[in-house]
Amino acid sequence: MRTFVSAAAVILGLLLAAVSVPAIWVDRNIVQEDGFVSLAAPLGKDTVFQQRLASAAVASIDPDGQIPEPFADLVQPILDSAAKSLTTLPGYPAAWEETLRKSHRLNFPAAGAGSAAADPSTSLTLDVAPLVGLLTKQISEATNIPIEAPDQTRIDIGQPSHRQLVDQVAAYAPMGYALAAGSAIALLLALIAARRRWIVLVGTGAGALVLAAAWKVGSDAAGLAVGGTASGNEVADIFKSEFVAASSERFGQWILVALIAGAVLIVAGVILRVVARAVAGAGRDPRSR
What we know:
By secondary structure, the protein is mostly helical. Helices cover 74% and strands 2% of the residues.
């Protein structure tokens, strides 16, 4: 009976871990604002992406005709120059971070606050208003023409169906912590109930290696599925491609930890087995008495 309980607890613990680890990763790195900003921040250094993003930002400037017609020809070279050197402008790092935060609040309104949270987008969206504001400031300082930057400048990077998937992920990802607690309790129960604890350690370690392989396959498959959907928007496609690559790399770090943990558990189980046999052998040796 103890053997059955131990085996069942190991299987249950591994199944719960299989779901909880990806869910926790998604919650920490995508659903939570700080995690999302940290994950997407390196995109701000991608030259091709920023050139496309700057072009999109430039196209959204002065939609209400704030720049007088006689100055239009004067402003355009300044605007083009600012767009090309966007990443070198003094306020760019802060503007890019704020772009990511505003975008996250649009796509995950439950985690946001203020007006952005009250006006969620119906599709996956980037709000590049901070970058537009940075470019607008450059024009105003160079021409002495007061130009008001827009509060929002949205670029769609997904479809409504993708937004529905994001909403589902945001709702279920936090459940990963409860599942992880259940996994830990099940594995602890397995260790307590086992007649041979070294078998539990080896079995759990082997299961961790299998889970790491499954997570790797699943991560690659998800990346291919997302990368295979073209939106027709060059900015959106570059962002999606780079974001998927960054996500795969960071989740790969978690997979590596699982591999190491699995190997450590197997080694610990083997050592425990060797020690147990040595102690048992010593107990049967008359010379030890």
